[in-house]
# Entry
Amino acid sequence: MSIIAVINQKGGVGKTTTTANLGHVLARSGKKVTLIDFDPQGQLAVALGVVERRQGIAEVMLEGRDIRQLLLEVRENLQLLTAGVRLMDIEQLRDGGAQRGELLSMALQNSLQDQDYVFIDCPPSSGLLAANALFASDEILIPMAGDFLALQGLSHLLETLKKFEQVLQKNYKKQLIMSRFSSTRRISRQVLNTLCKHFPGQVMATVIRETVLLAECPGFGKTILEYRPGSRSARDFRGLADDFLTGRVL
Amino acid sequence: MTTAKKDDLIAHDPLAWMDEEQQSSSQEPVDKDAEIPSPAHGLQDPEQDSSMEPHGSDEPVPLPATLNIQGVAQLHEQLQGLLHNRSMISIDASNVESIDTAALQLLVIFRQEALKSGLEVSITAPSSRFVKAARLLDVADLLEVD
# Structure
């Protein structure tokens, strides 16, 4: 089992879209996938059609609830652990010392062993929730939008990761995904070139082009495979999943 | 701080510190246990070198701003030269401002022929003019730029 944090402290770069759609393509390919909605806004659950607030990862971390009782089978081979009602409380924790950062790691210990991949859809922040995600993960997926501020945000994220790597004495496997790519904007292309320059062999080969369909499908609680299976966005995510499985990079 | 080149939309590179850090660490004594970074083989800035790339490289082939029947023979020769050197060919169409039927035909045929021999050819970051022309001639799907 691999635990993968889908993380970028900048909002609007495509973390939730990537988690939902990549997860679903992998599940359809026969992999066993669990998605953890680790953003208090709970939008990953909504994107997968789960709209009611229900107990989830927050209650596992704060109350010691059994993770298996809270998992939802949202699609074949695809499980979801919702954010829960109290996820924001974790961001506010003042007691517990260093252990505050290990709550997720401890919650996942000896759980989900039958899964191939566990993806953590992180919040757009660098607080205690992000720290928990990084403690628990072995790999990092960084969705990037094709604009300058995304590069700026990435710079901050890398500084954060560096500190974690020093403290935890581990090197994360990091992969970048060019999401929200606009082929008609030169800035998108230049951001992609900048990423390839600094992260040779770490930028996934398939770029996710920004489309109206990707913006629409969460409103129907569907992934792109369900909303428009023949669309170029569905093709993009199939290509991305293939990259993920085969290690194809730019 | 890196300075912007002409046409650059990124006036300074927020990730430049990574290079500086890598350079300074390369001057430090070598730690045998440390992971050695692989040589850069990512996409190259087309402005740095628009000529043919080294043997075996997978860097994208930049198309010129104007691509018409006068330049088709040269482009054909250039693309043919890649067939045996590459595992995949990426054609950068981001700078194309004008393209005619002959050039689009060449790209369609080259892509189809390459695919038959198991070589993947993709048009990356096509400019709006490129996409518009491809749509007009109904080859956008064939080139996968739509």
Summary: The two ends of chain B are 37 Å apart (CA to CA). The beta strands of chain B are 61-62, 66-67, 88-92, 98-99, 120-124.
